[in-house]
């Protein structure tokens, strides 16, 4: 798939999914799989920081960050998602349609970036990490969630095995750690969000990669390396 095809196919598919996503977004952030993200974020990024939410979807996560005391701009490839997100706009909370491979920020502009299950949906995650590194300040932070190997959304990459064009890169959490390290980031912390039937106490004695293998997603905090 060429870059143009990936870009247009991804935009089209997320436009089609926008309504369904918006209908369940609040529940995910308030009570579901994403409820632990903002508490994790605020333990590592000071309030009043300038944050970009990359792959912001309908903007609910951006709103949660704003409510926690951050200045936030949400970026998403889908114009339909951005239309939903703009219902939340107010001072220090804005949204812009954009490509994660070409971030609309000057170098060293941002204090932090949040990318929740969005790096897997880019054609070249390594390049996107380079872009994130570029736009972060020297002490900047990257909070990224990477889907676990058994997460349901991974079915979107299955067609690649038959030679189909897909818009999802299958990336394991441990692969993300290595990729981020190769592109200017240092590991700070991680949190595991498990699939149903697995608890933190069940996995407490497991090594990190086995914990990650059981998760719905692994939530990472990375720092820009000097």
Put the structure in a nutshell.
The protein is an alpha/beta fold and 226 residues long. It contains 8 helices and 7 strands. The protein has one domain: Vaccinia Virus protein VP39 (Rossmann fold), CATH 3.40.50.150.
Describe the 3D structure:
The protein contains eight helices and seven strands, in the order ααβαβαββαβαβααβ. It is an alpha/beta fold and 226 residues long. It has a single domain (3-224), classed as Rossmann fold. The chain has a seven-stranded mixed β-sheet with strand order 3-2-1-4-5-7-6, sandwiched between helices. The longest helix has 28 residues, at 3-30. One of its GO terms (molecular function) is methyltransferase activity. Keywords: Methyltransferase, Transferase. It holds the Pfam family Methyltransf_11.
Helices and strands in order, then pairings?
Layout: H1 3-30, H2 37-42, E1 50-54, H3 60-67, E2 71-76, H4 79-85, E3 93-97, E4 110-116, H5 125-135, E5 136-147, H6 173-182, E6 185-194, H7 200-203, H8 208-214, E7 215-224
Parallel strand pairs: 1-2, 1-4, 2-3, 4-5
Antiparallel strand pairs: 5-7, 6-7
The radius of gyration over CA amounts to 17 Å
Query: Total number of β-strand segments?
Result: 7
Largest sheet, spatial ordering of strands: 3-2-1-4-5-7-6
**Straight-line N-to-C gap:** 35 Å
Strand content: 15-25%
Q: Can you give keywords for this protein?
A:
single chain; 226 residues; alpha/beta; Rossmann fold; globular; methyltransferase; transferase; SAM-dependent_MTases_sf; Methyltransf_11; methyltransferase activity
